[in-house]
Write a structure and sequence with these properties.
two-stranded parallel ribbon, 2 helices, 142 residues
């Protein structure tokens, strides 16, 4: 354990011990009132931390353990059109990705945890234009 983690754990245990001692010394009725008030504050703090976690989650993409027999495309936050040509393995995304996603675009994570595909796998999010996935042509199946 690092020194910071150790200090955090010890501090947390001391705080819990102090809180338990305080509530024991208050008596049952007063401890019940204190615990109700404290639970309100812990609930509000937990809700605020959950919202902060959702708001600050970065745009992550991962293909994790993907083994493909075809193509795997992960596309996020593109300001223009996206064309994926099946069979040829090529993609075309005219403009570069946007510096920040536009309103209502992107914001989540994309992943393919343990994916094993025998064909194409497309994960597309936050495209500002059209998305076109073209079927394979007879001459591209060489």
């Amino acid at each position: 354990m690092t020194k910071r983690v150790l200090c955090t754990v010890v501090g947390g245990l001391l705080a819990l011990g102090g809180l338990a001692a305080f509530l024991v010394l208050q008596g049952l009725d007063e401890a019940d009132k204190w615990s109700s008030v404290l639970s309100l504050f812990f609930t509000v703090a937990g809700f605020a931390l959950a919202l902060a976690g959702f708001a600050t989650r970065g745009p992550a993409q991962s293909a994790d353990h993907a083994v493909t027999g075809g193509s795997l495309h992960q596309v996020r936050n593109v300001t223009g059109d996206v064309v994926i040509t099946a069979g040829g393995g090529g993609t075309s995304t005219p403009p570069a990705p946007a510096a920040a996603p536009a309103e209502g675009q992107g914001g989540g994570t994309q992943s393919a945890h343990g994916a094993r595909t025998a064909g194409d796998l497309h994960q597309i999010d936050g495209v500002g234009g059209a998305v076109r996935i073209e079927p394979p042509t007879p001459d591209s199946a060489s």
